[in-house]
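TASK: fixed-backbone design
INPUT:
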């Protein structure tokens, strides 16, 4: 693999040259600092852009053209990460060395059509398709309350990460959706190119630098924000533990317990915590799984995850509401056990093996590789082998001592009234 970064006034191009795949992936990131008012636009825009374009003005036409390019696919998404929001447009197509050289330019023109030539008339997105997308999002919003995992995760985040970008769901409210129309959406679309957003184009595959000229031409005349941005949120958590319960008509109850991470070094956050979290709640033989589920049969599912850019550790479980107090007691015991050398030592080597197996998957994961180079625009990111070496150097004592920097912050229960 060979990597080259090309900085231009109006965009940054990342060439990740590898012969590992028979496809070429081109991903365009429009990034700026989070604004809660953009969430509704993000949802509408991401779907509208790939539904149709000016040239391919129906859903069938845009799909058929992709098939004409040997199954080329263009997708889009809107996402929140740390302090930033991003619109992402992705193209993947068969490397033209296996088809015909003309398909390099034609496939990139397909992406160009989607990004720069939306299905717009009189400065309004096509109303018929706009309403189809709007109704799809309405269905998505209405489905939140019938999806206990999703609903509980959203409500927990509101409490745990109060007044920070992480407290917001990437799904808008019905009120926000009704405040937008197809004309306002087009007005927002134009801000992608007015200098508000940083623009990165990542290319992964077996390519040479001739693709740079095509990309530069594609973005000619576009403005870009080159202001330095960061993903990390400096959240000042409250000292007292916040506990909240609410009820909905589900069979199962959902429990979320959030711990804040206090003054961790980069090594602790990126290496030691990964092993700590694996032992606690992600590996098959984790402490949480063994004690809460296997030994006491108090949950249907249990695990843990780390929120890196708003530093925190979350434990989640599907439980019966009658087991609420006992489950919390045992979860706290599990976290306490992370200070027990005997407990940690028993799982320490297995945790490292689990992480190393996961890291091996990096080389076959196009998205992970692209995101690594993209994220380096906002933070220090180790290459996968440096990360592996640093994780393998972590000691049992470092894992045990990490418990001193983890403090309970939030307990949230979505009570299933049907059980």
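OUTPUT:
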């Amino acid at each position: 693999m060979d990597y080259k970064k090309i900085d231009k006034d109006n965009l940054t191009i990342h060439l990740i040259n590898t012969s590992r795949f028979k496809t070429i992936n081109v991903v365009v990131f429009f990034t700026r600092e989070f604004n809660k008012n953009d969430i509704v636009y993000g949802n509408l825009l991401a779907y509208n852009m790939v539904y149709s374009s000016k040239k391919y003005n129906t859903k069938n036409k845009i799909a058929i053209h992709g098939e004409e390019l040997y199954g080329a696919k263009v997708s889009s998404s809107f996402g929140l990460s740390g302090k930033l929001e991003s619109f992402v447009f992705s193209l993947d197509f068969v490397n033209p060395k296996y088809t015909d050289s003309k398909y390099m330019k034609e496939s990139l023109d397909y992406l160009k059509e989607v990004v720069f030539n939306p299905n717009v008339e009189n400065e309004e997105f096509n109303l018929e398709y706009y309403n189809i997308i709007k109704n799809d999002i309405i269905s998505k919003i209405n489905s939140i309350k019938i999806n206990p995992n999703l609903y509980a995760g959203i409500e927990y985040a509101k409490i745990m990460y109060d007044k920070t970008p992480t407290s917001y769901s990437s799904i808008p409210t019905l009120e926000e959706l009704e405040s937008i129309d197809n004309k306002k959406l087009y007005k927002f679309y134009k801000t992608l190119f007015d200098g508000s957003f940083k623009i990165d184009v990542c290319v992964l595959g077996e390519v040479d630098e001739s693709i740079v000229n095509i990309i530069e031409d594609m973005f000619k005349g576009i403005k870009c924000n080159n202001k330095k941005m960061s993903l990390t949120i400096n959240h000042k958590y409250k000292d007292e533990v916040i506990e909240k319960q609410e009820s909905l008509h589900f069979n199962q109850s959902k429990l979320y317990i959030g711990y804040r991470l206090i003054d961790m070094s980069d090594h602790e956050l990126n290496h030691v915590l990964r092993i700590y979290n694996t032992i606690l709640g992600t590996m098959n033989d984790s402490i949480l799984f063994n004690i809460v589920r296997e030994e006491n049969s108090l949950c249907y599912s249990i695990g843990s995850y780390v929120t890196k850019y708003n530093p925190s550790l979350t434990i989640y479980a599907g439980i019966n509401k009658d087991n609420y107090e006992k489950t919390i007691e045992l979860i706290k015991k599990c976290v306490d056990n992370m200070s027990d050398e005997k407990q940690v030592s028993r799982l320490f080597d297995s945790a490292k093996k689990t992480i190393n197996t996961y890291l091996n998957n990096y080389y076959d994961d196009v998205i992970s590789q692209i995101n690594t180079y993209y994220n380096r625009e906002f933070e220090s990111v180790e290459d996968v082998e440096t990360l592996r070496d640093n994780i393998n150097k972590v000691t049992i004592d470092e894992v045990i001592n990490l418990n001193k920097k983890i403090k309970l912050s939030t307990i949230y229960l979505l009570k299933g009234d049907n059980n």
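COMMENT: The mean pLDDT is 96.
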